[in-house]
Amino acid sequence: MPASVIAELLQQHERELLDEWVTAQRLAGIRTDLVDEETVRSNSQELLKLLTVAAAEGLDDLHSAHWTPVKGMLDRLSRSQSRQGFTSSETATFVFSLKEPLFARIQAQCANPVEVLWDASKLLDKLGLYCVESYMGSREAIIREQQESMLELSTPVVELWKGILAIPLIGSLDSNRTQIVMEALLEKIVQTESDLAIIDITGVPTVDTMVAQHLLKTVTAAKLMGAKCIISGIRPQIAATIVHLGVELGDVVTKASLADAFQMALKELNVRLVSATAR
Amino acid sequence: MAKKEILPLKQETDIVLIRQRVRQSAEVAKLGLVSQTKIVTAASEIARNALIYGGGGECVIEDTARNGRSAVHLVITDQGKGIEDINKAMVDGYTSGNGLGLGLSGAKRLVDEFAIESAPGKGTRVELWKWR
């Protein structure tokens, strides 16, 4: 039985295997900037112990319960390495570098090495791939987190004055984000009972027809709710581009800068700002 | 000089990447700020068309020269269902989807040279030039 043979080998030669494995990892290149050899060694030792226990129960099905501790440990390791900035191959190398010392043992000790080798190789391949999978899983989780935080970041609706809202848009406006921006603005209009909303596009690098369409829809929706929108921050190159695209902004009020738009909004509300010191 | 880059166009985030690359390319060609914005916007329109109506494709960006002037050359292709009547598609305000219907005609006005090839079932190929 290859399973028991491998388990036995792991148990009997634990010390030698550990030494050789750590050496193999050192040769493959340990990221000394991120991890010291002490940690590598203790990780390797822990995995070897867990492997010995699990291998004795059978190699075929990694989904069965006795492999859970091994998978749990690899999961933890891969996740933390992914956060620390290891590459996926560096993470997988941890498992794969066990091949050489283990195979050498099998070759030396077994009567029918080919069969055992094949099983050991399949096992380590599966574990290596498992490492890569959880590494990727954790990377994807990070990307998702960042995407979500960006969606939130991109939609600060601020109240400039009683009745005047401003929403400074930054970055490229894809449909997902614009949807959120639009909803946030409309909600805030109700919440603050504002009559005027300034949409500032200074930070939007490209205004194509889709962005223009989204802006127009937002303005129309705000109008339906009784609020007036001013679009500000239209830079010269954007203005030239909009004209050539042929987009009609209709009766949407536009201003070159946020300051102009604010001044206009104050005028609409019949508010006049005066200097505190007499001139 | 003639640097050529092929970018995939399979999802909306690819359009963002294409816009960034086109902007870099326009900077290399020393286009003015208005011209840069124009070619980037045109690329954005055509790439979005290729993605929404053509089901995705690819974009080739080339830093090159035209008649001794440095230029940006773009070829955006898709293997979608193609355009039945190109003349109609080029009319302002015509759309088979729910956009403003200004993408194709607008993009043509934004660049120095515009060429479109398409046939039903054959996909669409759009070529854009902007030079200094």
From TrEMBL, chain A:
Residues 154-265 form the STAS domain. InterPro entries: Bact_StressResp_Reg (IPR051932), RsbRD_N_dom (IPR025751), STAS_dom (IPR002645), STAS_dom_sf (IPR036513). PROSITE patterns: STAS. It comes from the Bacteria. Keywords: Phosphoprotein. The keyword Phosphoprotein applies. The keyword Phosphoprotein applies. CDD domains: STAS_RsbR_RsbS_like. This is Polyvinylalcohol dehydrogenase. It holds the Pfam family RsbRD_N.
Automatic annotation (TrEMBL), chain B:
InterPro entries: HATPase_C_sf, HATPase_dom. Residues 36-129 form the Histidine kinase/HSP90-like ATPase domain. Pfam families: HATPase_c. This is Anti-sigma regulatory factor. The lineage of its organism: Bacteria, Pseudomonadati, Pseudomonadota, Gammaproteobacteria, Pseudomonadales. The gene is rsbT.
